[in-house]
Known about the structure:
Number of helices: 33
Keywords: Hydrolase
Pfam family, one: Hydrolase
Structural class: alpha/beta
Helix content: 40-55%
Distance between the termini: 57 Å
Protein name: HAD family hydrolase
GO molecular function: hydrolase activity
Largest sheet: 6 strands, parallel
Amino acid sequence: xxxxxxxxxxxxxxxxxxxxxxxxxxxxxxxxxxxxxxxxxxxxxxxxxxxxxxxxxxxxxxxxxxxxxxxxxxxxxxxxxxxxxxxxxxxxxxxxxxxxxxxxxxxxxxxxxxxxxxxxxxxxxxxxxxxxxxxxxxxxxxxxxxxxxxxxxxxxxxxxxxxxxxxxxxxxxxxxxxxxxxxxxxxxxxxxxxxxxxxxxxxxxxxxxxxxxxxxxxxxxxxxxxxxxxxxxxxxxxxxxxxxxxxxxxxxxxxxxxxxxxxxxxxxxxxxxxxxxxxxxxxxxxxxxxxxxxxxxxxxxxxxxxxxxxxxxxxxxxxxxxxxxxxxxxxxxxxxxxxxxxxxxxxxxxxxxxxxxxxxxxxxxxxxxxxxxxxxxxxxxxxxxxxxxxxxxxxxxxxxxxxxxxxxxxxxxxxxxxxxxxxxxxxxxxxxxxxxxxxxxxxxxxxxxxxxxxxxxxxxxxxxxxxxxxxxxxxxxxxxxxxxxxxxxxxxxxxxxxxxxxxxxxxxxxxxxxxxxxxxxxxxxxxxxxxxxxxxxxxxxxxxxxxxxxxxxxxxxxxxxxxxxxxxxxxxxxxxxxxxxxxxxxxxxxxxxxxxxxxxxxxxxxxxxxxxxxxxxxxxxxxxxxxxxxxxxxxxxxxxxxxxxxxxxxxxxxxxxxxxxxxxxxxxxxxxxxxxxxxxxxxxxxxxxxxxxxxxxxxxxxxxxxxxxxxxxxxxxxxxxxxxxxxxxxxxxxxxxxxxxxxxxxxxxxxxxxxxxxxxxxxxxxxxxxxxxxxxxxxxxxxxxxxxxxxxxxxxxxxxxxxxxxxxxxxxxxxxxxxxxxxxx
Length: 825
């Protein structure tokens, strides 16, 4: 199994920050830093909620319990009221003083009379912030490293909380405040970071330090990067928490809503811990998959297994190889985290290794099973039955697939397929097969006794699904004269487990995939291939058992045929999964008693994996679908998880193709239907679920318009529109990495107060090229770049024709033809 040292995550570790993708760029420069400046929220402090405003829901819930909020105000309603109160307070403050920075007290002053006890609500909000916040160990590690070198550290925050309130929250999170030399907050300085004001104040506090010797780290481009640049201060954009279109967390939200909101920032942090020597960008994709998808699912399984063992007084479990290569060390780590004394000892076993040993006879049913295996060759058949010496009778055909032998006619006029069947049914060969059965059973039971002592008392752990191997284990042990008293623990169990339970087997599953099961369990059971592949090591399934010269029984495993690149990607995924465990343990310890263990929410912890299976991103469908899957049950047939499918299957569209995937493998071998459809129609599933989530609103139309812009190679575009819908288009463009630096609003004057940090422009100024800000270009040069500087996203659902005609009228006679991207009806 995978050998991994267990390392705990601690923010006092002065080297931990070097693992962070965003901080590691400072490794060679730390000695040149004379002052470290840190943003607080989403940089030094993370929250155990999906969005900052979700804190307001928790505030309302607590306020209801203590009678500080009117009972008729629901938590969701209070959240909206709290957001509006802050906006109103900022508008009022800007009108009176010229700046929009506010305090928590000014915000609650905007709440209607009689709705709540204002001062008590403000106190509850500060307490709630402290409850949800935890120290980001990466940034705190850098802070500790700087203090060890006597480098002063300042904290800068655009926040309505006071410095005293922030210090209390930081101390509650466990940060040693003696390591903080200065704290500047916009609510007290009357202006924030975006203007450069807080950075100017920082320089006033440290006049002896040159601007270039200061490094600021923060998550917000406008405040932490552009604001610092205005004062000549170097910045690091700490882009861990901010969301974007390619983020797997965004895709999870579209498919499932908020997934594991308490753990969202922690999962993102684990993803960012991918700075490993020799790890390239492709490996980092798989590391992220391990840290944020595979790791959480397997951690839930490990916790559930430990729960079962604690309840039953079990002290040793046996995960099944090959998946035990990753599952075994994760079980060991999980037991260590829980403080549970649990031994982990894998069993080398497979369907093929138990096939002969579990037979009571070899008749037509068993023969039909073998002859029906896709890709099985004549030579493989004799090897599986362990009568290779008899294969000489069919020497010319040993490399022929059995299904092809139906059409090869032998000397006696019958097909080779029929001849093989008749040969294996003959009395002399039946005797040899039964002797082989006895030999394999004896070797297997001897292996179990040698490795585990009492073969009848095994506790196995497996991914799932039908209990085939588990049933064979018990049958073999029973045929050997023992009475099985085993327990079998599966991640996902199908309906067939009910039948096994009726036979007296103790077989349990964390998730159910059949009737009465969850969508998550059903999808994982339908498409397990890449989960299994990502958990495996550099060896294949167990083929059989053999006695060595010392009399020891050893498993014989199949040779794997993989590229070095594929092995590297799998190792990266496994490293990510193991890394997640360390961060999981860190947050559990930081928020002791406030967070539920993964095993108590198995469906929720399965949703990240379910989303990849059910609604993969195009990159995931491509990379995971290209992984090869080798089924070692009697054959070494190997193929990509997403095998090539002829175009004829796609001509009727993605929905019809998904329906076709219900056919049997002999007609359409679709291991991963959603992966195949995404490879052909990259955003079909995304827009399908986006439309459902949006209530058949405008999100899909906006997405498709912006996607056309990106497909045309534009990195920036002008926005033409007005009101809330234009703001929505602007935000979505940013979310998709598309720059919009010029907003033309046909309904407002140039002196109007715009949204965000924009200034309004006229069409005439855009037409004449009078905008200094870089608009962005097409991929390429020359005429393409000129056309791109006159491209417009028309942000309206009602005046598309009027807006377009107005732009054309302004451009008339200019010699320039504008490009339009519209939300076409």
